[in-house]
Amino acid sequence: GAVVSQHPSRVICKSGTSVKIECRSLDFQATTMFWYRQFPKQSLMLMATSNEGSKATYEQGVEKDKFLINHASLTLSTLTVTSAHPEDSSFYICSARGQHPEKLFFGSGTQLSVL
Amino acid sequence: DAKTTQPNSMESNEEEPVHLPCNHSTISGTDYIHWYRQLPSQGPEYVIHGLTSNVNNRMASLAIAEDRKSSTLILHRATLRDAAVYYCILMSSGGSNYKLTFGKGTLLTVNP
Questions:
Q1: Which residues of A touch B44 (CB under 8 A)?
Q2: Do the chains contact at A49 and B97, CB–CB below 8 Å?
Q3: Which strand ranges, in their side-by-side order, compose the sheet holding B70-75?
Q4: DSSP-assigned states of every residue in B66-87
Q5: How far does B112 lie from chain A, in Å, by closest CA?
Q6: Tens-place pLDDT, residues A61-100
Q7: Does residue B94 surpass a pLDDT of 70?
Q8: What is chain B's alpha carbon radius of gyration, rounded to the nearest angstrom?
Q9: Touching check for A45 and chain B: CB below 8 Å?
Q10: What number of CA atoms fall less than 13 Å from residue A73's CA on the CB side?
Q11: Strand runs (DSSP E) across A1-115, as ranges?
């Protein structure tokens, strides 16, 4: 099956620093990638949708200047959490849509802890 | 987006079948029914999806009601590795934005 690699799996940073999370589709071209965040014992919340070569579409309530998304190629999308604060601590998950548009493949997630 | 309703939790014994229900009374004609599951500290994993007919794959079976207002995910023989949160999601086939909106899902516990 298709593989989506997400890196890093875990990151701890100081408040005020920026953190970049990478999401790669390893064996297929992903025209669309999605970014989610998940708080403990809660469901996934869609943050934004990114299409290769165009600006990301953010869900209501998600600050685009805080969560920078870049989808420069068909196999790579990045999420940068700028000036991270403790309330940004969460589990961030990416997903990618490939050849079968009705099926999404998910990365293994990134646990971000901001001190 | 059309919503789904699932029980918060279910319990099963190992090697027994599990039937996970999902209600989606406001489903539209173009909505696919998707199931994903999420193991602890991991990203969701695709399980199965269907439109009108029942579907089978190596992981599970999906039984869809004739009026499509409900569906059931069937794990034929539960194993300990099947313990996860199972999400029933509707995805519209219209347009190019196949985004998934997750509900709370069903936490499945499998007892040895």
A1: 44, 93, 95, 106
A2: yes
A3: B18-23, B70-75, B61-64, B55-56
A4: TTSSEEEEEESS--GGG-EEEE
A5: 24
A6: 999 999 999 988 889 999 999 999 999 999 999 999 876 6
A7: no
A8: 13
A9: yes
A10: 8
A11: 4-7, 10-13, 19-25, 32-38, 45-51, 57-58, 67-73, 76-81, 90-97, 104-106, 110-114
- B-interface mutation test, from A23, A54, A95, A102, most B Cβ less than 10 A away: A102
The CA-to-CA distance between both ends of chain A, in Å, stands at: 37
Helix (H, G, I), strand (E, B) or coil at B93: coil
pLDDT in tens, B33-55: 999 999 988 999 999 999 999 99
User: What is the least distance, in Å, from the CA of A47 to any CA of chain B?
Assistant: 11
Segment A77-82 long-range contacts (CB within 8 Å, at least 24 positions apart):
A77/A22, A77/A23, A77/A30, A77/A33, A77/A35, A77/A50, A78/A20, A78/A21, A78/A22, A78/A23, A79/A20, A79/A21, A79/A23, A79/A35, A79/A47, A80/A18, A80/A19, A80/A20, A80/A21, A81/A18, A81/A19, A81/A21, A81/A112, A82/A18
